[in-house]
Amino acid sequence: MAAAYVEEAFWQDAAVDKRQVDGLGAALELRARNGQPMADFQLKNAELAGIDLVNHGGHAGFSLRDADLYRANLQNAHLFALDLRGSSLMKADLRRANLHCADLRDCNLLGILLDGARLDNIIWDRQLLQERKGREQLRGGDSVAAIQLFQEAEETYRNLRLHLEQAGLFEQAGLFFHREMVMRRLQMPRHSGRRLLSWVVDLFSGYGEKPLNVVLFSLGLIGVCGLLYFLVGVRQGDQSLGLAFERGLWANLTDLLDCLYFSVVTFTTLGYGDITPQGLARPIAAFEAFVGSFTMALFVVVFVKKMTR
Asked: Whose CA is closest to 189, among 204, 180, 199?
């Protein structure tokens, strides 16, 4: 069997039960160190516990791209900077493995076991494989297949998030939590109220992971309401503030700035009283004050959640 290790067909033959091969890990290590190609290797159910595929002294890691590692035993494996792009790690056992700086783009990570694994600086996809395929199916009109893929994507994002949180990698965990919630939303009926509400929460705060969204929404609302006050007019004592074509550019610009100031005061519910709404400005001010109080409370929750991690 040792001679078969050097044959390309042995490694790429899915019919060969790799569980029955002794010394498989050592043979794979030797092949990597000799610089031989390791693309499309069929290693389903392979016993590779403790394998060392670290390119010691090299600037780049070894490449094991497009491999099938379904249910492979990779416990305590040393996979620093290993290029696994396009590989299937579905239900692979990577407990206590070192995946530091590994490249896991385009990988199938459904059901992967990562308890105690080192996960810092891994190169992840912005969207996991199942999510991308699900969106392709949705564009092709196959909503049933798309929902199934979105379910798998949600499960995978949740699994990765939990392990990243355990490893203290909260920034990446937060990104995966956001994708998890997006996948859950895409499984809801397209025109349902629940899906709309979920989309609004995502837009405002990124499901609690994007405080900048809250700030941008606040600035946008203040600006829009300020322009509306400028168009419909507000009062400052006995003087009316608003758009007036008969007045000069500088006077209109000054009134616009005063309206923006009033919008800030209304949004923050300070209510100084130096400028007051009139006519159509009143319902606008009431709406802005209501949304503003809610938005500031939301920002505090999101900001504290991010800072306490």
From this structure: 199
